[in-house]
Amino acid sequence: MNKFTCSTCSEIHPLVTLLEFPQPAIISAISSGQSEADLNVLSKNIYRIDWKKLIIKVELNLRILDYEDDLDILIWSEVDLKHLKEKLPEFTSKKGGDIVLDAKLIQEIPFYRNTINSPITLTISHDGFDLYVKSVTTNEQLMADIEKGIELKDLTKILEQLYHYDETNFDENPD
Length: 175
Ligand SMILES: [Zn+2]
Description:
This protein is of the alpha+beta class. The chain is built from four helices and ten strands. The chain is globular and about 55 Å long. 19% of the residues are buried. The chain binds zinc ion.
């Protein structure tokens, strides 16, 4: 695995190109019985909670212009079920065409900041019985980077902040 020298601590850290965010705390709280909400697993990337919202894992793909790999960010988002229901007739009438949904990110990407609750747009498509997310529109800076690509130095900046992130900022449900 490739490595880089960290400008924060001067140590060597692994250079990773896949950032997979953990399952949102609300899902583990329900699965472990700490929360009584009704959880329905629609697929490994889509959960329904209490007939109120869908929790959907989305993939953000950023080209790294001066490196052999892309940066893939797997992060969780939330869609209001009422909003989805309003969109469903559109989906049915298109006979499997795409639908565009308003959603929000529910996790923070270090470096981009304020991605929690930032509005995103999901284009949902149909593959047999499976719904999947085809594309995502997200906050301005992140979207610009998705469109234009980033450089290796941007990736190391993201990673440095991730390796040295204050963990209390990551706690979605502080008690
Ligand atoms: Zn470091």
